[in-house]
Design brief:
The chain is α/β, with parallel strands linked by helices. It has nine helices and five strands. Bound molecules: adenosine monophosphate. Residues 9, 31-32, 35, 52-53, 56-59, 64, 85-88, 92, 135, 144 line the site of adenosine monophosphate (AMP).
Length: 194
């Protein structure tokens, strides 16, 4: 399975991606987690992206693409992945499509987690208090939602027209969302295979 997760910040993308990956026995690759590891480790990538991440802005495409290339290739050879947080823009999706085609491994399914703005803000505030994420302050939360609407939301149409898009109502308890996502993905897979 090669799956992309699309969802606004606070939609539960990371949690669901992890559960879905475990269910289907593939790897979970999170661009945000990898970037945060670079920041924590003070690497050159980390230093290049820290300020933008703290502001809630996207980091440059080239950095993300270079960082993801090897893990994604390795996961592809081992049976697939759930990619969480990439692509974030139509430009990234187009660039990734060309790379994947070279590998003979274009993405087949995108999953969109739909969550209301009110619930998103509530969840991110809670996470900011608990996990102490630098980009979960009120001002940055609002900016990240704007960035999602402007840059990432166009991907929903993009994937609806190309690959198979599965929409899941993410405004529900976490276990219900997981169950709905897995059911939606199974159905999508059987349609693609059949
Ligand atoms: P996330 O954990 O997915 O919410 O990502 C946290 C932050 O990492 C984002 O606000 C961006 O600054 C950066 N980031 C993660 N993935 C990408 C990407 N595909 N392109 C650009 N920036 C990204």
């Amino acid at each position: 399975m090669r799956l992309l997760m699309i969802g606004p910040p606070g939609s539960g993308k990371g949690t669901q991606a992890e559960r879905i990956a475990a269910h289907f026995g593939v790897e979970h690759i999170s661009s945000g987690d990898l970037l945060r590891q670079h920041v924590a480790g003070g690497t050159s990538i980390g230093r290049a992206v820290e300020e933008r991440m703290n502001r809630g802005d996207l980091v440059p495409d080239g950095i993300v693409m270079d960082m993801l290339r090897r893990p994604v290739e390795a996961a592809t050879r081992r049976g697939g992945y759930v990619l969480d947080g990439f692509p974030r823009t139509v430009e990234q999706a187009e660039a990734a499509y060309l790379v994947a085609r070279e590998l003979g491994a274009a993405v087949r399914i995108a999953l969109y987690l739909e969550v209301s703005d009110r619930e998103l803000v509530r969840r991110m505030r809670a996470r900011g208090r608990m996990a102490g994420r630098a980009d979960d302050s009120d001002e940055v939360i609002n900016h990240r939602l704007e960035v999602f609407t402007e840059r990432t939301a166009p991907l929903i149409d993009y994937y609806a027209r190309r690959e198979c898009l599965v929409r899941v109502d993410g405004d529900r308890p976490v276990d219900e969302v997981t169950a709905a996502a897995i059911a939606g993905l199974r159905e999508a897979r059987s349609q693609l295979d059949g």
